[in-house]
């Protein structure tokens, strides 16, 4: 992914025409898009291939959590599509993360990122599933595990970026969802941030969703996000 352009727009859409319309309206303003399970299921992998063919970088947010063989096969399929990033779930353990990293070696431009703790989860949510550690501690624990497994970076809440940057060093990718412009809703993310604050804390990339995709003028909204980064 291009560090000079840290903004990734989340195409969290339930149909292909809506997603394609957003891409069309953003035009050359946006270089990078996130495609998650919702859009992948609705539009299929061909849509991802079309984005890549248009010169767009695609962050394929699969949150893979399966046996290592299946994870490796999914990563190879993502690499064949030409995506730039793919996610595995850190809670799956070192085995699946190593399998993902090894599978990505055949695709030099593909980066494997580990999801630490889902950004909508609170300490109470973790306790419900038997994790007796605060979300911040669990994030750092999984980030260390991901680094040891060879992952290129992590997905994490904006509030944890500073500690993660210190822990992982300057070369790691840290992608922060839960980012919105000042005064706008961050959706279901428990610990949101503004674009500029996330970047200043040490994020390499930020993921922006409805602040851009639901704006009356997505291109103008994208420029506001870029201006917030610059400030």
From TrEMBL:
Domain Orotidine 5'-phosphate decarboxylase, first and last residues per copy: 6-225
InterPro entries from the UniProt entry: Aldolase_TIM (IPR013785), OMPdecase (IPR014732), OMPdeCOase_dom (IPR001754), RibuloseP-bd_barrel (IPR011060)
Pathway: Pyrimidine metabolism; UMP biosynthesis via de novo pathway; UMP from orotate: step 2/2
Pfam families linked to this entry: OMPdecase
EC class of the enzyme, as a word: lyase
UniProt GO MF annotations: orotidine-5'-phosphate decarboxylase activity
Keywords carried by this UniProt record: Decarboxylase, Lyase, Pyrimidine biosynthesis
EC number: 4.1.1.23
Domain of life, per lineage: Bacteria
Chain's role: Catalyzes the decarboxylation of orotidine 5'-monophosphate (OMP) to uridine 5'-monophosphate (UMP).
Name of the protein described by the UniProt record: Orotidine 5'-phosphate decarboxylase
Organism: Streptomyces anandii
Gene: pyrF
């Amino acid at each position: 992914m291009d560090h000079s352009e840290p903004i990734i727009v989340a195409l969290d859409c339930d149909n292909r025409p809506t997603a394609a319309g957003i891409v069309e309206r953003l035009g050359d303003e946006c270089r990078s898009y996130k495609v998650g399970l919702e859009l992948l299921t609705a539009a299929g992998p061909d849509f991802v291939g079309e984005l890549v063919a248009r010169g767009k970088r695609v962050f394929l947010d699969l949150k893979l959590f399966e046996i290592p063989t299946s994870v490796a096969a999914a990563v190879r399929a993502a690499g064949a599509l030409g995506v730039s990033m793919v996610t595995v779930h850190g809670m799956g353990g070192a085995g699946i993360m190593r399998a993902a990293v090894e599978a990505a070696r055949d695709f030099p431009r593909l980066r494997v990122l580990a999801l630490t703790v889902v950004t909508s989860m609170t300490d109470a949510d973790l306790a419900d599933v038997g994790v007796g550690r605060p979300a911040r501690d669990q994030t750092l624990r999984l980030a260390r595990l991901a680094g040891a497994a060879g992952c290129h970076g992590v997905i994490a809440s904006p509030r944890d970026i500073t500690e993660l940057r210190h822990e992982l060093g300057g070369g790691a990718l840290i992608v922060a969802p839960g980012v919105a412009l000042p005064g706008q809703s961050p959706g279901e993310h428990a610990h949101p941030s503004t674009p500029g604050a996330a970047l200043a804390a040490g994020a390499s990339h930020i993921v922006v969703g409805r602040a851009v995709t639901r704006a009356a003028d997505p291109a103008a909204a994208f420029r506001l996000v870029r201006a917030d980064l610059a400030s």
